[in-house]
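Section: Multi-chain targets

For targets with more than one molecule, the full set of components is provided together so that the structure can be written out for the assembly as a whole rather than chain by chain. Components appear in the order listed by the source. The example entry contains four components.
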Amino acid sequence: MVAFTDRGQEFSGLLGEIVRVNGLLLSAGAALARPAGLTGARWQVLAVVDHGPVTAAQVARTLGLARQTVRETVASLTSLGMVSHRHNPRDRRARQLVLTPRGRAALRLVERRQAAWTNQLAARATLTDLRTATGILRDLADLLEG
Amino acid sequence: MVAFTDRGQEFSGLLGEIVRVNGLLLSAGAALARPAGLTGARWQVLAVVDHGPVTAAQVARTLGLARQTVRETVASLTSLGMVSHRHNPRDRRARQLVLTPRGRAALRLVERRQAAWTNQLAARATLTDLRTATGILRDLADLLEG
DNA sequence: CCGTTATTGACAGGACCCTGTCAATCTGTG
DNA sequence: CACAGATTGACAGGGTCCTGTCAATAACGG
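Its structure, encoded as tokens over all components, is:
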């Protein structure tokens, strides 16, 4: 029924692989974060907060998420005692977020686990392949954005 | 703080591009489906149901989703009048799902739009690049699965 | 036939992400 | 200063996905 060109067919196959790998990455991220009492999303937020006192809106912009999404994640991190708020002298509305010792410890643990995981997997691929694929995907992303 | 090898660094870059492209694909899928009154997830379910009468559990296995997820999507498709149920002679529990004329029309519209979108984008890439990237990502997926 | 095991729909509950809206606050301009 | 426009946190509501649980039903082995 649907008329794909040859290249369209090949393109669809590539998109399928991307979706598949992305799914595997989400699982891997969750597995890396779990032993630290985190989830993938909470880990990402924690990592941004670690780079300095920021507001929720800034975190949202950094991660490319909606403000509300970050707000929810920050709420759960706060109730876990991993993030705390403090007065922002530059904006009465937007309190600054900072890591608690517990939050910092959890983040460090995940980061160590991630480095080990990444290096181990990367050792089983060739630099050439990695660079080639990255380049093609970058072009693809630009194509999709334009 | 975190110790990445050279290859680990390159590997991380590739993963970042994959996540980025995946995000763009989700947006594109939603945009393709919207004019037909669909979402990305509903489109996927509709496409599986189109291939023949199936049960919700079968759709879940086909798409690699949890039964409950498909159940919810089917419920919204049913309330939209795009999917209907019918008695399954082979299993008293599991009713078969079938497309209504409205569901079929919506699916056909999205499929036409998707083919046009795919072919247009694919025309701006080379077959070699597409095949190279697909191959590398397939290896990567296998690596992540094992 | 009968008991064990697997599958199914269904419900509860939660994580993650979005849009739309609103009032409070900030910022830039006249 | 005063006003217009942008930004922010907060709330409401919805979509998509998950795990865990349960009873009903199916499938299978003895």
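Chain B has a mean pLDDT of 95.
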